[in-house]
Amino acid sequence: MIRGAFIIFLALALVISSIGCATTNPNGTPNTAASTAGGAVGGALLGAGLGALIGLATGNVARGAMIGALAGAGAGALAGFAYAKHQEKVLRDRQAAEAKYSYQPEQGEKVVIEELEVAPSMVTNGDEVALNTNFTVLTGNDQPVDMVITQTITSQGKPVDKPFEDKGSRKSGSYGVSYSTKIPAKVQPGTYALVTRVKTAKAMDEKTCEFIVATKAASNQREMCLVSVNGIQLNN
């Protein structure tokens, strides 16, 4: 009987969790609040179910469920970053990009991340931020190449959520892309880093930019974000 109830319990947890991850607003953009809440609820239920299973083995089902729920809620809420549809613009055509880097086709494929920015660079829980990247891809021809842009938010060198990937193809030139996301409610105050990687089959570049998650009382302070442009550190 307990085993049957546990199976039903897990099924409900998976349904609630998936609803949170896939929730969208009427205009088609992700509902990040619902995503975070759904992740927390689903994580709590799933954690409670797993805790109950542990409790069956230890003889204390209630205690196992409580511990599992607390752990699951935290993990589910933390994995609540939701990225809205990105905006993109062409900054330079092939000719201008090749001229900027004195590029010759015999150099092969080349990728350069020129600017990386989290705007604003100081935020609080629930704030929306823009992850802005300017990059150049050079191939020596007019044929588009497949590439993957990966965005990873880290704390002390460790990811706080699964990486976000944008797969597509682009011709030789320079591009500016901007992704927006909200800081989940359960993210703790502190210094975080945005690690961005632009990768093709034959070339790759990666840059890191720090930003601050602060309490409401300190949110009006301004912080500096170091941006790397062609290997030179600039203050944003």
Task: Give the structure's gist in a few sentences.
The chain has 236 residues and is an alpha+beta fold. The chain has helices spanning 2-22, 32-58, 61-78, 94-100, and strands spanning 87-92, 110-119, 122-123, 128-138, 145-155, 158-159, 164-170, 173-182, 190-200, 204-213, 226-229, 232-235. It has four helices and twelve strands; from the N terminus they run H-H-H-E-H-E-E-E-E-E-E-E-E-E-E-E.
Q: How does this structure look, described?
A:
Helix content is 31%, strand content 37%. The chain is built from four helices and twelve strands. Strands 3, 5, 6, 7, 9 and 10 form a six-stranded mixed beta sheet that branches. The protein has a four-stranded antiparallel beta sheet with strand order 1-8-4-2. It has 236 residues and is α+β, with helices and mostly antiparallel strands. The protein has helices at residues 2-22, 32-58, 61-78, 94-100; strands spanning 87-92, 110-119, 122-123, 128-138, 145-155, 158-159, 164-170, 173-182, 190-200, 204-213, 226-229, 232-235. Strand 11 and strand 12 (232-235) form a beta hairpin.
